[in-house]
Amino acid sequence: PSSQVPSAVSTLTDDLLKYYQHVTRAVLGDDPQLMKVALQDLQTNSKIAALLPYFVYVVSGVKSVSHDLEQLSRLLHIARSLIQNPFLCLGSYVRSLIGSVLYCALEPLAASINPLNDHWTLRDYAAMLLSRIFW
Q1: Gene3D superfamilies of this UniProt entry (predicted)?
Q2: Can you give the pLDDT at residue 72?
Q3: Judging by beta carbons within 10 Å of its beta carbon (0-12, 13-18, 19+), is residue 91 exposed, middle or buried?
Q4: CATH class of 14-134
Q5: pLDDT digits (tens, 9 = 90+) for 30-88
Q6: pLDDT of residue 109 exceeding 90
Q7: Which of 24, 27, 83, 117 could form a disulfide with 3 if both were Cys (CB 3.0 to 4.6 A apart)?
Q8: Residue 29 falls in which region: left (phi positive, over 0), alpha (psi -120 to 50) or beta
């Protein structure tokens, strides 16, 4: 998935757009500490409701990176942060999040072809996320 913003960004303020770009770059980038900070903020920020569809769009990119367990894991971490953010009402986006998480839990991932890849850890994490969505 890219950190490119979906086309309907005209309704977002510059600050929200910058936040979205910084968070997606941080989570999908190479700096683990920056990723941790971004995910923590995504989980607690009370002012990002307008960005929910954009972050859900990023998470929906799981199929395009099914060969990369690291990227899949990062996308699931975004989903977890969104699910755990008490200020977000997931509403109609729950279906998309469930679909992305289910994909990671159940689909034959391209990354699982290599026996050295521990795709079971990713699948366990996805299953745990599903339990958080439903309970």
Answers
A1: TAF6, C-terminal HEAT repeat domain
A2: 93
A3: exposed
A4: mainly alpha
A5: 999 999 999 999 999 999 999 999 999 999 999 899 888 899 999 999 999 999 999 99
A6: no
A7: 24
A8: beta
Instruction: Kindly tell me the number of DSSP H helices and DSSP E strands found in the chain.
Output: 6, 0
17: enclosing H helix or E strand: helix 14-28
Residue 51 and residue 106: Cα distance in Å, rounded?
Answer: 28
Instruction: Give me 24's structure tokens.
Output: 């997606």
Give CA–CA dist 22/25, Å, rounded: 5
Which residues fall within 8 angstroms of residue 14, CB to CB, at 6 or more apart? none
Task: State the CB neighbour count (10 A cutoff) for residue 76.
Answer: 21
Is the distance from CB of 111 to CB of 70 less than 8 angstroms? no
**pLDDT bracket for residue 6 (50, 70, 90):** low
Amino acid (one-letter) located at 97: L
